[in-house]
From TrEMBL:
Lineage: superkingdom: Bacteria
Primary localisation category: periplasm
Pfam families: SBP_bac_8 (PF13416)
Protein's cellular compartments: Periplasm
Record's keyword annotation contains Signal: yes
Name of protein: Multiple sugar transport system substrate-binding protein
Signal peptide: 1-23
Keywords, in A-Z order: Periplasm, Signal, Sugar transport, Transport
Coiled coil: none
Keyword Isomerase carried by entry: no
Family the entry assigns: Belongs to the bacterial solute-binding protein 1 family.
InterPro entries xrefs: Bact_solute-bd_prot1 (IPR050490), SBP (IPR006059)
Length: 409
């Protein structure tokens, strides 16, 4: 009897040891491959604090397919990054995600998070994410190139155009913009529409405005004129951030999450580059800014894993937020954590002083079934920015949008 009991115990220990040896580590799936090295360093720090994870990257297009397949099969990853807005709602509607209201309640009660930040991740009254980053979309500028051309950051659209002309006269390309990675085509489209008619921008996202409307045509006309004047770098480069860091263009419109990538290119925030909010084309418009709030989300299966839930709670603390602010220089909105860098701090002060109204990014504000093919069309225009291609692009996207809204009314 004793021998049999001993064999049973030894077998159980062996099975337990085997299970421990081959236990799956907590994987944080993401498409932010450009932060992978920073994420690895964050993983090392997290492990030292008792919250180990393995950052697992995918290219953006492959990533969306990977997550969609997992959701459709009922086998979504336990924890992964995503987008807010319509893309977040898609997963909520598919019943794939776990509400995280309790996590937020704990962080707000501890004085770590502003409850207003949770609005970005709220769908049908419940919160479905914690911030991977909270970013404003700004124009970075190369201080040395501005000094060379005798420029200060522009405060109006006319100032901006005058600056572009001075830069061109000095042999400097004003703007860095490409179609790298396939998703960037919407950036200048959304910004120009916001700077000319913010009401039209929101109506377009909700299906109340056509892509062949006068407001959209005006954007393509303005966009095309900027290209015709030679204000942009070639759209086909695959080294967009490095182009800016190497001085191939004086300005770069992007989310402030790109600061780490610019730093890795050899530029120091505040010393080598600064940032300003794009001026309105129409000076009568109130100040505004595009806001992006990428979330980390938890699947229904992930919510059953204590390690996953412990990790997302830890992620919201000032301990984790402060480390994330250092590397890769990202802000999650933790009140007690320092701002990631002087550029983010300076922009935050300007936005607060001007009471700039935040607007959602096109990528999250419009339905994915419109955004993804629309971006491909916008890319075509950036590669061949002619009036003829503009007309083709507007017609193609309008057909996509019209078909979508007709089926979703």
């Amino acid at each position: 009897m004793t021998a049999r009991w001993m064999r049973t115990v030894l077998a159980a220990i062996a099975i337990g040891a085997s299970t421990m040896a081959f236990a799956e580590p907590l994987k944080l799936y993401h498409d932010k491959y450009f932060w992978q090295e920073s994420m690895k360093r964050m993983a090392t720090y997290a492990e030292s604090k008792g919250h180990p994870f393995v950052p697992t990257p995918y290219a953006t297009d492959q990533y969306q397919a990977f997550i969609a397949t997992g959701v459709q099969s009922g086998n979504a990853p336990e924890i992964f990054t995503w987008w807010n807005g319509t893309k977040l709602k898609d997963l909520v509607d598919a019943d794939a995600l776990q509400p995280l209201d309790d996590v937020w309640k704990e962080a707000v009660s501890a004085g770590q998070m502003d409850p207003a930040s949770a609005e970005l991740y709220t769908v049908d009254g419940k919160i479905y994410g914690v911030p991977l980053h909270l970013s404003s979309w700004v124009v970075f500028y190369n201080k040395a190139l501005f000094k060379q051309a005798g420029l200060e950051p522009p405060k109006s659209w006319s100032d901006l155009l005058a600056a572009c002309d001075k830069l061109k006269a000095a042999g400097i390309t004003p703007f860095d913009a490409t179609v790298q990675d396939g998703w960037r085509g919407f950036i200048w489209f959304e910004e120009l529409l916001l700077r000319t008619d913010p009401a039209a921008y929101m109506k377009l996202n909700s299906g109340e405005l056509s892509y062949t409307s006068p407001q959209v045509k005006a954007v393509f006309k303005l966009w095309g004129d900027l290209y015709a004047k030679g204000y942009f770098t070639p759209a086909t480069s695959n080294e967009e951030v490095l182009n800016f860091a190497r001085g191939k263009a004086a300005m770069y419109l992007m989310g402030d999450w790109a600061i780490q990538n610019i730093k890795e290119g050899g530029m120091k925030p505040g010393e080598d580059f600064g940032a300003f909010v794009m001026p309105n084309v129409d000076p009568s418009l109130p100040p505004s800014v595009i806001n992006e709030g990428a979330p980390i989300v938890v699947s229904k299966a992930g919510a059953k894993n204590p390690d996953v839930m412990a990790f997302v709670k830890w992620w919201m603390t000032d301990e984790a937020a402060s480390q994330w602010a250092k590397d890769p220089s990202l802000n999650i909105g933790n009140i007690k954590a320092p701002k990631p860098n002087v550029v983010v701090e300076d922009v935050a002060k300007v936005l607060a002083a001007t009471k700039a109204k935040p607007y959602p990014r096109y990528w999250e504000a419009s339905p994915s079934d419109i955004v993804l093919p629309a971006v491909e069309q916008f890319n075509k225009f950036m590669v061949t920015p002619t009036p003829e291609v503009a007309d083709q692009v507007m017609a193609a996207v309008d057909k996509i949008a019209s078909d979508y809204w007709a089926a979703h009314k």
